[in-house]
## 1
Amino acid sequence: MLQKKICLLGAFSVGKTSLIQRYVNKLFSDKYLTTVGVKIDKKQVTVGSTDLTLIVWDIAGEDDFTSIRSAHLRGLSGYIVVIDGTRKNSFDVALALHKRIKTELGDVAAVFALNKADLKAQWVINHEHIHALAQLSYPVIETSAKLDQGVEDLFMGLARQLVPENSEV
Amino acid sequence: MSSFLSSICRNINLIAFTRNPIGQFTPCSAMPDWLVFFLVKPEDTGSYNLIEAFPYLSCFIEDAEQHWQAKCAEPLSSGVWIEIDELEHELPLEASVMYLDGQEVLLLQQLGEKYTQDLSRLQQVRNGLLTQEMLESEVKRRTLEIRKREEEIAIKLVSLTSLRDEETGAHVRRIGLYAAVMAKALGWSSEAIDTIRVAAPMHDIGKIGIPDRVLRKTGVLNDEEFNVMKKHTEIGANMLRGTKIPVLAMAVDIALNHHERWDGTGYPQGLAGEKIPISARITTIVDIYDALVHERVYKKAMPEDEALGLMQDMAGRHLDPHLMAVFLSLLPAMRRIRLEVTEENEERSDLEETEEVCV
Ligand SMILES: Nc1nc2c(ncn2[C@@H]2O[C@H](COP(=O)(O)OP(=O)(O)OP(=O)(O)O)[C@@H](O)[C@H]2O)c(=O)[nH]1
Ligand SMILES: [Mg+2]
């Protein structure tokens, strides 16, 4: 079966692990347990008539103490950049990461997740930010790992970019 | 391997492999219990495909290969990854490779306690960073709120005077917006830009102390009346003076000096050139622009090009020529403010606000 390596990137505590947990295991926890080291999960999806296994790499969040190893990006077919709508800083980190990956890997499939949509009242990411993201011409999807909103769309949004178009129905 | 060394390996949860020519890994120390779940299969041949067992290693093997080829004896580490074991516990693992005695060696270690310590240290650091980020954004939000209130109070103050003279709320707001555009172009800090946006509208606040017979006179003022009128600069400054609020401090400068002229022929002090605070020099320019291009009770609106011509004549005499040039370069932005912030629009947004309140 077709296998594609994808990874979730973004500042620490934006919800990378939570989105994967929600998508793969249908679980969510409010407690913040930071990820140290890489965790790999698998999930089978079907795009059109193509069955596909997503190999999902959960990479530790980026901050002043940890930065992403280039080796982790080897063989990457696509990535999800996660932004925490309640934290402006996570928006800046997302743009910087996206830029770095583009220069390192060239054009690979990507999707932006605006996570914690259940906390919209506390969002500091506004229309202008979202507009700026949309300009990069990758899908931007609002998600809530907590309420299971947009999570399926998020991963499918990426999976669809990974399957050659002629095999789609 | 001696049993002594084997015991050490067991104690630190480490296993050593050598790689054979077909790329399989053969253990050269005892297989630890925690590893059996991942490696051992019924058709066990005694050597293992570690890359298949641990997909994480797929991103490491390229570097490892180079390391072996270069015959490096120092260990090269893979970085930490997490596996889930048969008890559904997280198992932190790390591999390192080296070239020893003609052998391609791979060490695999379960990090255990060391990982837990690193984890809890990082958890603390990140929790701390989150709290800090939260506090910072809370401070930002509150500062913004206070700013907005200051602005509202300023506008309310100014509206006291506009009850008596003919200046409108829209004019007052435009002055602040034009001034802020100038300040931004001049590279002011964002706080200073906010400050002038609130302070500039207060330039005429002293008119509240000018008697009606002068303030509301429709004809030309005589000398005595003009002298009374001039007092609005000092009255305004005195009204606003004596606080530690930055907005009011700048408002004092502006109220006092917005009728000073670049060549020193203005009032009340006859200051010249850069002796006149820059906030006031900016306000003078934008106030004249706005007054010229808008209709007043006592005069018609002047076409913009005519107004600009007039102002260019004033540059170097009445107006700061450098700031005038800056103003001209910003004309499109000024024009947008002029067309967007009008009496009608202001009334409409007032109405909308009232409606919202009613709902
Ligand atoms: N309200 C809300 N909280 C969320 C959501 N997603 C994640 N969280 C919470 O945000 C915190 C961080 O989530 P994680 O999934 O651990 O974040 P991460 O990006 O993996 O963090 P690192 O591994 O440290 O980089 C946790 O407390 C989660 O419960 C969401 O959609 N809504
Ligand atoms: Mg995580």
Note: Chain B has two domains: 3-117, 160-358.
## 2
Amino acid sequence: MLTNTMATADTASTPLLPDPWHTYLQSALAPDESIEAWLTLDLDDTLRFSDSVLVLTGRQLIACATDGQIAAWPLDATFELHAHDHAGVGSLTLQDDTARRAIWRFTLTQNPAALRFSRRFDQVLDALREGREAGPVPAVLCAQCQAPLPPDEDDCPACSGSIDQPPSTWTLFRLWRFARPYKGQLLLGFLLTLAATGATLVPPYLTMPLMDNVLIPYQNGQQIDTSLVVLYLGGLLGSAVVAWGLGWARTYILALFSERIGADLRTTTYDHLLRQSLEYFGNKRTGDLMARISSETDRICVFLSLHALDFATDVLMIIMTAIILASINPWLALVTLVPLPFIAWLIHLVRDRLRTGFDKTGRVWGEITSVLADTIPGIRVVKAFAQEKRESQRFREANRVNLEANDKLNRVWSVFSPTVALLTEVGLLVVWAFGIWQVANNDITVGVLTAFLAYIGRFYGRLDSMSRIVSVTQKAAAGAKRVFDILDHASSVPEPTNPVHLKGVQGQITLANVGFRYGNRAVLRDVDLVIQPGEMVGLVGHSGSGKSTLVNLMCRFYDVSEGAIRIDGTDVRSVPVAEYRQHIGLVLQEPFLFFGTIAENIAYGRPDASRDEIVAAARAAHAHEFILRLPQGYDSLVGERGQGLSGGERQRISIARALLIDPKILILDEATSSVDTETEKEIQKALDNLVRGRTTIAIAHRLSTLRKANRLVVMDRGRIVEEGDHDTLIERGGFYWRLYEAQQRQVEGEVLTPTITPAMPSAHTAGIAAEPALK
Amino acid sequence: MTTPAMDFTLTRDAFGHLSLTDAAGERHDHVQVVRAFPIAAPDEGISVLSAEGHELAWITHLNQTDPATRQLIDETLAARDFMPVLKRLKSVSSFATPSTWDVDTDRGPTRFVLRGEENIRRLPDEMLMIADEHGIQYLIRHLPALDAHSRKLLDRFL
Ligand SMILES: Nc1ncnc2c1ncn2[C@@H]1O[C@H](COP(=O)(O)OP(=O)(O)OP(=O)(O)O)[C@@H](O)[C@H]1O
Ligand SMILES: [Mg+2]
């Protein structure tokens, strides 16, 4: 009977019910009944995790519980299905015109599917009311999020790229990606290492003939052969000099190489970080990110330049020594290798602990920097509330956790090194014993034994240093993991796979059924809005009603959770992010100035702008005059967060910044909220000219600011509640009217008791204000 | 403490919506009951909000309500507050995030994806709050009270 379904419904989205539900439902379905939609519910009535399904056919709604128990509601024209969600739990309510019939719950994992289900339900019921067949599911929507697919694209721009894979544990090898450009240098470095190591192995070899051909014969009464002595000693000196030269070249080349890798790693990570959405930055702590990019990459770099190199040398040395030893005397060689398995086992034992330990210390370190990054910018609040003690306590606490993590690590570590040393000492003892026994049996000469002991000294010494490297390697691996964590994070505002390029933007913005949530908190619901090219729309509403959020979505700082935003009919998710933002001029509620001159700050969006253009933009934003009053005019330095300028001054600079890029779409989020009414009027006048020909979206609490708007959109708790021009809305006497009345009353009050308006910056105060930044 | 007289009545209609009638006899439909401190003090500070989000009534402690109202509030809150308490970590797919966790909660076994370590937040008193990729929040009431295996797994992320 399900094959039947395939024929009637649209194949692209035909819901094929998996088992066991399929089996359970057999009995409940009539032979010719087709399944229109189904939904897995992962919560039961008491909000416990348990799977069940909800199935919609053309005739009934069936709920099938985990144990196969079935409840059915024959469809009725009065039925309504309402979707709702709160704090991570979604619900679907079935009701008729008299009462609620049923309620089902699910986690937000199922939310897109639930919305699809409910939409299909509406379609089926509409058809039922009109007595026709419900058509096929419109196939142009993305199956996952209901966003319409852009033409010529199979992947939904909203959903693709949202599948993450955990990074593999062999993270250090992933550094190869950064090493590849330096292959040549790496190879050269390796060859040099090989040669240098070989050269250091010559001296012990020479002790063998020195002993057997010179010293032992002398002891047995023969003369010392001076020429032989000179030859051997010359060999010793020569090999030492060669080893020195080769060692120098190799260290230099490989150090250069590792510095480059470190720099590449850092810049790549930073570039990647910059491409992340605001959501990412909202979730991360600044200090932690800073620690990852600065100290972790540095740690990796040190590892590569010093320890990885040493390690490679050690491995080569051990292999070569083993070969030489075996070639001199295989039995003795075998005995020397006895401690090796023990050491390997020991390394294996501590490695995991060390890595997790270092991973943890890395995180704790991030916590320490986070405390700093939190407190230092907020120092004014800390001081104002006299909370220095508390902050100091917080820092101390972070340090305590750091100590704890390190102490634990050091406990493991401190046992490890001496143990390896002990094992090697024991190994040496075994070799002595076995060697003496062999000499006594005349199997080997004293020279051979001496050479062996000389080699073994190095061999074990290397083992010891190799075991030390376990710690640095694990440290670097933990660091690499944390760096790759950033690199592996796909932006939640992904670049489209098949980008659509905008040609000549008109500036029409369409919001279709837009829903948005921060985490599990639904902030916008069912927002439908079409803004025509060149239109000025004013967004008003209470604080927290979602105005800034809407604007964030239009700028694509975040992507919508449901629905779509289109510019000139193209889904913004299919346009490359940077290209899209070029068309948008944005003035934010909290203006941000970078460290640099005022001119640079104004030209931030268009560094190639001429001085005339900068001045023109500043004039238009009414920033020109106050800038001229600063001692260094446009060349005045403004510091972090624009310290040294007042809020209103900063705002005007950011208006100038937005105007300079001459955008098709201008977004003003409380652009004039921190200037006095007088200045606002002036800026307003300037803006009035500038908004002409641009699509403008302006948010303002002072409703008078929006006089020029063609249309006002009133928002309340994430929804659009009213739309129209000022007069219509006043006439309607609804939400807007109330807002307006309240403000009028306030304005009248202000006329009677004038409040202190922020004074226009006089030359004097502005000069003082600018000074700190100049130091 | 004696139960003070409540100056409002709560009722539920056939659609499952709550209505509040205040002391003046005015009726507010579609009201919502919310906890002010869902984690720190679930039984204290219950507020009744109107459909527009304005506060209509404040209940200092649940035990100050009469049994009928209390039951109504309990039912409503039970269906509204969803914060599974983690009882045990069975396994994690990897120690690097994103990682899929297989867990037992007070609401039955489930699995979820942890996006990043920063989604584990430390609250006072060794309490942890873990947000999954869909924003569902899992609570660990008291970290030292977890079994050793869970703590060991968890420690790799802290
Ligand atoms: N990053 C965020 N994470 C979670 N919630 C957020 C975030 N930003 C805003 N919100 C919430 O979203 C809602 C809408 O916020 P938004 O900033 O859009 O309000 P607004 O209308 O611009 O208010 P205002 O007039 O005060 O600027 C608020 O309830 C706010 O608490
Ligand atoms: Mg805002």
Note: Residues 39 and 381 of chain A are 50 Å apart (CA to CA).
## 3
Amino acid sequence: MKAKIATTWLDGCSGCHMSFLDIDERLLAIADRIELVYSPLVDNKVFPDYVDVTIVEGAVASVDDLAKIKKIRKHTKYLIALGDCAINANVPSMRNPIPVQEIINRAYVENAFIHDVMPKHPALPELLARVMPIHEVVPVDVFIPGCPPSNDTIFYAVAELLDGRIPDLTNKTRFGA
Amino acid sequence: MAANGQIKIFTLKIDGKDVSARSDQTVLQVCRENEFFIPTLCHLEGLSNIGACRLCMVEVAGQRKLLPACTTMVSEAMEVTTTNDKLAHYRKMTLELIFSERNHTCSVCVSNNHCELQFLSQKLGINHIRVPYRFPKFAVDASHPYFILDHNRCILCTRCVRVCDEIEGAHVWDVSGRGIQAKVITELNQPWGSADTCTQCGKCVNVCPVGALSEKGRSVAENTKRSGFLPYLTARRKEKI
Ligand code: SF4
Ligand code: SF4
Ligand code: SF4
Ligand code: FES
């Protein structure tokens, strides 16, 4: 049976997904062993009931991210935190020492030349008081540090999981790599 | 050292292996001479040892507590353990706490790819920090014409304090506050740029193991540290060359 794989992003820059795509033709080599059931790269908009491996990029920064990651955890066997934002909240967390309202005010009112009003719309998810790494919210099974982790590292991790092993990435990557 | 000031030769066991050492050596020196790996951050060859970071902890037979290898002198028939699960556990925990105390954003740090903290975290197999980050609010002092101090990255190893005092003889640096409030300061907590005592020698920048002290106008790749000069300088001063 093919392994069901999902990928998604929370508060990140999509750089980790770019690195994932950089796996290039090696993706084809494992294509007959995996089924991509949910991802920014495919059409499905609803997270499936059961996924073997979900790869998550980005930190938990909004109420939306929070709900998303909790749902994903519930329906996922192996949760992979991909990249520094997912693991240590990285650049998104640089707002943490400053109160949320001050940040939004600076961005949308103080520094705005036109239309200087606070954004307010039901479709806009509320920001959390502090940006968190994923493992502060739900348990994570595999950590792949790096900003972004190299395509080789990501491929190695996925291949190991497909072979039923938890990958040891100590010599392959680190924070900031 | 022996009472009459003469140096003796001791025999001790490190991880079960017999080694000999001079009585004026620390456990760390003997371990390094014999190629046993011990992680360190506050220790730097050429500076005094203060046992601040607690990364170099080892087990010594007959001692209930773990001892810092950098400040523990060797003794005859000492039995030292440098690696086991307990030590690995404490060393990891120590490093994780250091990460959680300040804001370490490696991807955008001046020391990315040449940082001792970053490399040690990889070497000890740390891929996430298990305690919650504190995300404190700390300032950056860019008032000095050549150098920058970023408290967000400081690990309070006090290498800057010691090199400026012991080697440069200027004693610009000190530590103010206690515990979580502690931070390095220049002169009496004045901006570094206004510190008349600073000779602008750059020694503090070059011994800083992390991105807390860096040179202005240099790219991340250029902001490498050169601390190799220290042992020579100290040795030559001892010999009064
Ligand atoms: S000082 Fe080192 S560990 Fe801290 S952010 Fe910079 S590179 Fe990373
Ligand atoms: S540049 Fe030299 S004198 Fe100035 S603070 Fe650093 S070590 Fe001390
Ligand atoms: S500024 Fe650098 S050398 Fe000084 S205490 Fe902080 S980390 Fe250590
Ligand atoms: S190196 Fe020994 S305590 Fe820091």
Note: The radius of gyration of chain B is 19 Å.
